[in-house]
Amino acid sequence: MANIKTVKAIFKREFKAYFDSPVAYVFLVAFLALVGFLTFGVTMFYERRQASLMPFFMWHPWVYLLLVPAATMGLWAEERRTGTIELLLTLPVTLAEALAGKFLAAWAFIAIALGLTFPIVLTTAWLGSPDMGAIVCGYVGSFFLSGACVAIGVFASALSRSQVIGFVIALAICLFMLIIGFSPIISAVAQWGVPAAVVSAIASCSLMQHFDAMQRGVVDLADIAYYIGVMVFMLAAAHVVTDNRKAS
Question: How far apart, in whole angstroms, are the C-alpha atoms of residue 188 and residue 198?
């Protein structure tokens, strides 16, 4: 079982590392600028004259697709490139504890970026009377969606010592898991003669499908369990990959 104090120590080390360079602040500004541009510039938020944050939440998966791999690509790749991974794993720290600490630090960093979007909520409340319950559900869904993307990023970073390769792999996996539930994809799979039960199972693996209900204001424990399952699976896969590399 992971030692909570050890995980906390790794978390502090990795979280602090984000803000030891200006990259973190550039990332936060880029995140807020991109979300703001897509919400107000592309979907014409003001022109809709609706006190709803649906146009805001609909862009979150695509913003995470680009920015989360960038925030996670160095978690393991940089450790391996500089050789500090050997030093880390010789300390009284298990691989599971190191993975958990790194994952939680990256997730907390993304959560800060998400939390900094609160002025959009204030703007919406000032313009009208939005359904605050739906907004809270949207933020909960976005938070768990980002966690799943971060876990994918941790796994991708563990595959190579190159941050660029880690970024590309994470982006490819996230993109695949976002579009796998889209109607054109499902229709194409069904036309190949795949049984309906298998097609439904494939669609249920989509990150987007489980986020759609939450951004509409419906929180289903099955959706949260799905995201937690993705996180556990990806971190377990990262554990296997890192452990095999350490043994070789």
Answer: 13
**Interatomic CA distance for residues 72 and 164, integer angstroms:** 11
> What backbone phi and psi angles, to 5 degrees, belong to 193?
85, 15
- CA–CA separation, 189 and 175 (whole Å): 17
Alpha-carbon span 8 to 206, nearest angstrom: 31
CA distance 75 to 101: 11
- 95, two tokens: 């691989």
pLDDT in tens, 141-197: 999 999 999 999 999 988 887 888 989 999 999 999 988 877 777 777 667 776 767
- Classify 43 as helix, strand or coil: coil
Spatial separation of the C-alpha atoms in residues 240 and 100, rounded to whole Å: 14
For 29-36, which contacts have Cβ atoms below 8 Å and span 24 or more sequence positions? 30/67, 31/63, 31/67, 31/113, 31/116, 32/113, 32/116, 32/117, 34/63, 34/66, 34/67, 35/59, 35/60, 35/63, 35/117, 35/120, 36/120
Give pTM, 2 decimals: 0.88
